[in-house]
Amino acid sequence: MEDRIRRLSDESDIRELLLEFARALDAADWTAYAGTFAEDGVFEIYDQHRTGRDEIAAGPRQDLTRWDRTQHYVTNLAVTVDGDIATARGDMLGVHIPDKSEPTKHADVGGIYHCRLRRTDEGWKFSNVRVEILWFAGLPMPRDLPLEPSA
Asked: Considering the entire predicted model, what is its pTM?
């Protein structure tokens, strides 16, 4: 029973981490967003590999400034824990509103978050998050993300 309780607790903590990841993006809380990653964590989107908390936070700090508001949803979470490492997968929907005075106009993207995690002294953290983009809808979604994060 203790093993089951620990596994369920770990799975719950990991699900909460995924939700915090999305919440921090939408709140533009770059410290909280970067804090969901291990110090040497990696975030992959398109052909970019952002490594370390500073670089990981710099990416959306720059990429998302073109939008007045965003909403990122994470659903259909699947978590597998094996000791102090874990994998997680979540379907993602990102809504990007360029002008909050016109909320009916937005650029949407759907995909999958593929995550690897490890237990750290700070709790569960992402060691790697890879975004698999599946579709776009609505306004054109700029795909001209900078290859180098700004400082």
From this structure: 0.89
H-helix or E-strand spanning residue 58: helix 53-63
138 — alpha (psi -120 to 50), left (phi > 0) or beta? left
Domains of the chain are 2-138 (3.10.450.50)
> Per the structure block, which two tokens stand in for 6?
């620990």
Q: Per residue in 2-28, pLDDT tens?
A: 988 999 999 999 999 999 999 999 999
Separation between Cα atoms, residue 81 and residue 44, nearest integer Å: 22
Residue 105 in contact with residue 97, Cβ under 8 Å? yes
Residue 140 banded pLDDT, cuts 50, 70, 90 = confident
